[in-house]
Amino acid sequence: MTEAILLVGGKGTRLRPLTVHTPKPMVPAAGVPFLTHQLARARAAGVEHIVLATSYLAEVFEPYFGDGSALGLHLEYVTEQEPLGTGGAIRNVASRLHSGPDDPVLIFNGDILTGLDIAALVDTHRTSGAEVSLHLTRVEDPRAFGLVPTDDTGRVTAFLEKPQTPEEIVTDQINAGAYVFNRSVIDTIPAGRPVSVERETFPGLLADGAHLQGMVDSTYWLDLGTPQAFVRGSADLVLGRAPSPAVPGRRGDRLVLETAEVAADAKLTGGTVAGPRTVIGPGARIDGSAVLEGAVIGEGAQIRDSLIGAGARIGARTVLDGAVIGDGARIGADNELRGGIRIWCDADIPAASVRFSSDQ
Q1: Phi-psi region of 176 (alpha: psi -120 to 50; beta: other; left: phi over 0)
Q2: Which of 81, 233, 280, 349 would disulfide-bridge 262, Cβ 3.0–4.6 Å?
Q3: Which CATH homologous superfamily contains domain 2-223?
Q4: What residue ranges of the chain are covered by domains with CATH 2.160.10.10?
Q5: What is the pLDDT of residues 28-54, one digit of tens each?
């Protein structure tokens, strides 16, 4: 058995207002909390024991997932009292692991949607004799990421943080946020203080001559750190572009949860999700969007690439394009909101008061 650590303690600042009341891994994607997809994929790969490293809104996780038995897992929860960074969070949960010193431990970031072959990463780790193995993926523009060049055998040769000049871009391989650690390596991470695996642990191991192995897996990969990416990831799960055994229904152009009410002439396309107890009015057109629990979409509304928070109300004929509407917000009829605009939770916008707005 391989056990795993899931890092789910981040505040999700870039995702606000979605994360004002909900930690990022618990925001619904394709009808269920995003974390559900990660847990289900780990279980399908043979993982049975997972420790969740929680911090922000930590009290939300255990009431929803319990001991994990419904997913065929044994889940434990460890809460950071102060933010410890990725490495500090890993070290903070080490006492809950059952693995021996030479056993592999999987580590996942709680905001990455990926088609990674988890079993292949573990196998690469074992056969290469590495102390740490990293999932790497290739991207067209790596400037926003940390580069991880490797030699011909896949052994990591350096860690290069967010290059900006053409000369600094020596590879298109980036750290994709999933790792396998030997348990003994976890125990060497300093305890009780913030530690970054990306900036401290990995470079330090490399400097000490440790064997770090990279495995390039260029299947589906998406960092869900922004609202636009989160909406896209949810739609890709519904459309079947991103793999998950946890999508609650048949994949296709739309996903309508059982308790949702959708008018007969409303049109939902592009991987749109109508969450529990949502109401979609007559003539509404919704494309590539997520409508979360209890939200109401008025007659003739037109919504594209947007996320509508729980309990929000969108008025008749209102147009949303690339918008994020916080939980409980009320957008009156005949408004037009575009260009990445974010409306805060419980905001109230009167009818016909906004024709266009943008965060650009």
Answers
A1: alpha
A2: 280
A3: Spore Coat Polysaccharide Biosynthesis Protein SpsA; Chain A (3.90.550.10)
A4: 253-349
A5: 999 999 999 999 999 999 999 999 999
DSSP code of residue 58: G
Q: Are 139 and 146 contacting, i.e. CB atoms less than 8 angstroms apart?
A: no
The residue type found at 358 is S
- The percent of residues above 90 in pLDDT, for the chain, comes to 72
Query: Does 162 participate in catalysis according to the annotation?
Result: yes
What confidence tier does 241 reach under pLDDT thresholds 50, 70, 90? very high
pLDDT surpassing 80 at residue 161:
no
Angle at 310 between CA 306 and CA 311, to 5 degrees: 115
* Ranges of CATH 3.90.550.10 domains, the chain: 2-223
Q: How far apart are CA 187 and CA 99, in angstroms?
A: 11
Instruction: Tell me: pLDDT of 227 over 50.
Output: yes
Question: What are the b/e assignments for 46-66, b being 16+ CB within 10 Å?
Answer: ebebbbbbbbbbbebbbeebe
Beta bridge partners of 307: 290, 324
Kindly report the average pLDDT of the chain as a whole number: 91
Q: For residue 352, is it left (φ>0), alpha (ψ between -120 and 50) or beta?
A: left
From the list 11, 24, 162, 267, the catalytic residue is 162
Give the C-alpha separation, 19 to 14, whole Å: 9
CATH number assigned to the domain covering 253-349:
2.160.10.10
pTM confidence score: 0.89
Using only the alpha carbons of the chain, give its radius of gyration.
21
Residues 6+ apart with CB under 8 A from 182: 101, 102, 103, 104, 105, 131, 132
CB of 219 within 8 A of CB of 160? no
Which helix (H) or strand (E) segment holds residue 280: the answer is strand 279-280
CB 250 within 8 Å of CB 271: no
